[in-house]
């Protein structure tokens, strides 16, 4: 247990302090949001119909870019080998790294979607649901991205490769997360889409952790 | 089945199969294609109904090939048979081609019938995801300098992608989609008229055999390729030593 806590603290400290931390990801999210009204026209009523999709696009890309080096640096400097010798199973390493990513990057990103959503024309009444779906979605993105990063350890071309692997797997949370917002905007209950989003996140946690651990093992032999 | 994991035995057993498979597939394909042009026009769809004879086999094979890819990946992960990796690798190109063909023929049919090339309904989207998964597998498989490392990483991804198959299959039942629900394999028997059913079955068999022929040929080529690589490596070592 203490080993797990130690790894979690290490990952969170590295992710929070190293190289800009959540500020970098949030800045990226914000810059993406600036491009859209400049490209699609600044009319808020028009933007509001696009807003759920745009917010989710920005969230998934920002999660993706920060996940790229989740294992790579530890692979290069040998930390992954030390972790493999330690008491934690590979599944534990993956789950703690993904959890640390969600806590230090995913949740700040989810908070950042609120001002972005407002700037794109969402009403304040939609914000609680946006925050909730973005937080759950960011969890799904963190574990799915950890799976992609674990599979791509040591690959010749990192960033784009992980994007191609992971983006198709990002689609279910995007569908139901944006679906919940659209349902609420149309005056329907967002409950079913929200429940399906949570189900997607749970499935992603189980599969991402198991497959990510298989990826870690594959990188060693 | 496990005996076939030995490459030597695999090569021996499959050698007499490959030629006849190609021939039977070609004959059935010719018969089915001619037959497809002789069926009466559909009351509503007119001539465009003939796209069905390419679209349906391509789409079902796109799914079936991914299933064989995923199962090959599973066998590779569990037993580390290099032949299973070769089988998964050899299935990617035909599978992606079938899936792409299903998407393209669907668009060609959708333009006159639905009035649009593409709609974002569940069946079309999940089929597109299937296509992306083929690409992801191929890209990951080739992204490593070490062949074995690429095989291990890609087989995990191939296995994860299997989740998409039931989503594609049941998307038309779970969501209200523009794409029609299943008419061939469904509870209560097929809803297809025999005039269309039989040529369709001939075409599906032809495409299945065609895939098997392509697959076996590609696996055999891969086995030969690895032998050549092994021989080259040995020669290089001998030249050094």
From TrEMBL, chain A:
MF terms in GO: heme transmembrane transporter activity
Domain of life per record: Bacteria
Pfam families: CcmB (PF03379)
Topology class, membrane: Multi-pass membrane protein
Keyword Chloroplast: no
Location relative to the cell: Cell inner membrane
Keywords: Cell inner membrane, Cell membrane, Cytochrome c-type biogenesis, Membrane, Transmembrane, Transmembrane helix, Transport
GO CC terms, sorted: plasma membrane
GO terms classed as biological process: cytochrome c biosynthetic process; cytochrome complex assembly
Transmembrane segments annotated in the record for this chain: 20-40, 47-67, 99-122, 129-153, 159-182, 194-216
Coiled-coil ranges (or none): none
Function: Required for the export of heme to the periplasm for the biogenesis of c-type cytochromes.
Family the entry assigns: Belongs to the CcmB/CycW/HelB family.
Stored NCBIfam families: ccmB
Protein name per UniProt: Heme exporter protein B
Lineage: Bacteria, Pseudomonadati, Pseudomonadota, Alphaproteobacteria, Caulobacterales
From TrEMBL, chain B:
Secretion signal span: none
Superkingdom as given in the UniProt entry: Bacteria
Pfam families per record: Cytochrom_C_asm
Residue ranges constituting the Cytochrome c assembly protein domain according to the UniProt record: 12-179
Subcellular localization: Cell inner membrane; Membrane
Transmembrane segments: 52-79, 91-110, 122-144, 156-175, 195-218
Principal place of residence: membrane
Keywords carried by this UniProt record: Cell inner membrane, Cell membrane, Cytochrome c-type biogenesis, Membrane, Transmembrane, Transmembrane helix, Transport
Recorded family membership: Belongs to the CcmC/CycZ/HelC family.
Source organism of this protein record: Brevundimonas halotolerans
Primary role: Required for the export of heme to the periplasm for the biogenesis of c-type cytochromes.
Lipid bilayer topology: Multi-pass membrane protein
GO CC term (a single one): plasma membrane
The UniProt record lists the keyword Cell inner membrane: yes
Protein name: Heme exporter protein C
InterPro entries linked to this entry: Cyt_c_assembly, Cyt_c_biogenesis_CcmC, Cyt_c_biogenesis_CcsA/CcmC
Example GO biological process: cytochrome complex assembly
GO molecular function annotation: heme binding; heme transmembrane transporter activity
